[in-house]
Design a protein that fits this description.
This protein has 432 residues and is mostly helical. The protein is built from 23 helices and no strands. The longest helix has 34 residues.
Length: 432
Amino acid sequence: MEIILATIIFIICYIFIMTEKVNRAVVTMAGGTLLLLTGIYTTEKMLVDYIDWNTIALLFSMMVLIAITEKTGLFSYIAIRFAQRVKGAPIPLLIGASILTGIGSAMLDNVTTVLIFVPIILKITKLLKLPAFPYLVTIIFSSNIGGAATLIGDPPNIMIGQAVEHLTFSSFLIHVAPVAIILFVIMLVLVSFLFRNTLKRKSIEIEELVKINAASYLNKTPMLYQSITVLILTISGFLFHAFLHVELTAIALSGAILLLLLTEKELATEQIFEKVEWVTLFFFIGLFTLVGGLEEVGVIDELARAIVVSTDGDYVKTTLLILWISGLFSGVVDNIPFVAAMIPVVQEFESYGMVYLDPIWWSLALGACLGGNATLVGASANVVVAGLAEGAKQKIPFIRFLLYGFPLVIISLIIATIYIYLRYLIPYMDQV
């Protein structure tokens, strides 16, 4: 009965999120409340076990950092200089933003990257009177594909790296980055082709753009230099957090609180908190509670076990099925709880005689990261971009995103299948 109840609540909430008739944060919070009222889990279990407060704190901290930095005019300056560099050409602008996002997501985590780049892109599109949708969608795709390339790029990769000691940062670069680069190039070609008619050069806006003095947008007060310094320190902390032995959330919180303290005289804390995307934060909290309901009643665990049963322990079938199941499932719910449920299952495969598990780990990592592009709730970065866009009155429609995202995920999974099969499975079968 509990399984049916939790599943029905999840499906109903998902339908409301798709139709966008009710605020998405209210929908997910209502779903979480229903799970509490029906006794699926207790308040304590919901707050302690299922809501990922690390993710919430990381998001909040970066929103504070970005909100303060935005007040200095730094993002406007970068946006204008970037637009001037490509001479306002829409497609080169799309490609440039995509490459920067992809690299950023590989070196940082993808949520941090989109929090930095989306405000800049929103300013550029407004300045050039271009539709924001193609750029925002491309940033989401770039962040998820770029995040798949490294150990620190996406939470599922971090979780897998922590579970398997020999899968280091260099291992991800050697085994996952090559296919991520191939997929990134294919994605760039596809979006450039699909949006070619939407993104047209407007000569009047270009002329106005060239005349703008970007430096005039900078507020050259102590807050500018404080913001730049703290942002650089925070990003450096993200890059070297493994060597510093400090969690990403602790680094982000330290940066946000330090900047709040430094800029308090120049900018009231209340003003900054008004700029925080509270709807996005509460949507995440609600989403964690909904997925937590599925975890509590064992839906996710049963799905993981069903994979093993359906393949009869066949190595090749198991590897490829995990790629596709994780890819498709991650498009529907956040990939973090799914990967958390799958890690012990993959570890259990050794008892079925599967000694060489690395290709299965790569399949899980690729599926979870790439599958996030399917829907607006498939990955944390997607939800953050949607929240920032909504705050700027550039709402991303759920169904419209799905029409672009889902086909890209299918193409990505097909290419990843070929990559996994040729690079790992054929050599394995030859040895056996």
